[in-house]
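testing teh design pipeline on a random one, pls ignore if ur not involved
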């Protein structure tokens, strides 16, 4: 059963995020080719209005991404990612005073976004690109480290692990935490993402969620992203636009298994599912 802890404050630039209860990270893709909403929010005003809606629905964080990491995607140039992300971050901070996370592996984008007021770095490559560790350290911001086997262009080509998936993911993330600590990036600034759908089969994803307590043993907040992903489509036989009910079930299971941030497209419905799940879990702990 999940206990209800005292406030756990994560400093995020000029914001503070309380992770004593689950929070929602709203996805803002400013790319033409993301798997479920590519091209919808490329225009600056469209991106701003979508972020405004997600904040109104209860998102605590807006995660801005300028490079698609869907299976089969190709990397973009630094300049292209810079041009997509930086103007959006600047307006979200200035006009909405939003807590902005930047979904990037690029050291230059990390530094510029931080200078404009972004409050978090969300890196699917766990700061493995040249210069990323040093850039993240210099920003002073919290960083989410994600597990991915391979790269987006090839990660779903028959993924295979020599050990149970939960052990493989936990071992990799522990090694990345150690690499961060070695350069002075303290544990208090780190979050972990299991990387559902990144170099994992459906069976891997299901087992990883079922055994996610293995990752909570690492002692750091967990950020989980399963919104609209192909694991839902393959289990339920649903296209992208019909995956919300399955996603709500996964969101509730993730919260029960220790997730503190859910990265989602459909903020309002997920917010209701999270609040209902948390009410049940909290009731149980308060009456033990």
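output:
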């Amino acid at each position: 059963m999940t206990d209800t802890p005292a406030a756990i404050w994560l400093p995020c630039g000029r914001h503070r995020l309380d992770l004593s209860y689950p929070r929602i990270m709203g996805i803002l893709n400013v790319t033409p080719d993301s798997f479920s909403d590519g091209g919808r929010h490329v225009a600056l005003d469209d991106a701003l209005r979508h972020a405004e809606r997600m904040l109104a629905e209860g998102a605590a964080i807006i995660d801005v991404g300028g490079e698609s990491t869907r299976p089969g995607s190709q990397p973009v140039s630094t300049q292209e990612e810079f041009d997509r992300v930086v103007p959006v971050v600047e307006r979200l901070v200035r006009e909405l005073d939003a807590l902005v996370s930047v979904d990037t592996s690029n050291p230059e984008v990390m530094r510029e976004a931080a200078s404009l007021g972004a409050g978090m770095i969300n890196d699917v490559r766990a700061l493995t690109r040249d210069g990323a560790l040093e850039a993240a350290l210099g920003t002073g911001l919290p960083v989410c480290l994600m597990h991915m086997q391979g790269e987006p262009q090839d990660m779903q080509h028959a993924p295979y692990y020599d050990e149970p998936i939960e052990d493989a993911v936990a071992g990799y993330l522990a090694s990345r935490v150690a690499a961060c600590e070695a350069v002075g990036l303290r544990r208090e600034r780190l979050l972990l993402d299991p990387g559902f759908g990144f170099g994992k089969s459906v069976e891997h994803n299901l087992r990883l969620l079922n055994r996610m307590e293995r990752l909570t043993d690492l002692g750091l907040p967990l950020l989980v992203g399963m919104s609209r992903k192909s694991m839902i489509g393959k289990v339920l036989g649903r296209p992208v636009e019909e995956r919300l009910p399955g996603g709500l079930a996964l969101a509730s299971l993730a919260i029960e298994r220790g997730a503190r941030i859910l990265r989602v497209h459909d903020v309002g419905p997920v917010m209701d599912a999270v609040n209902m799940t948390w009410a049940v879990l909290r009731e149980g702990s308060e009456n033990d």
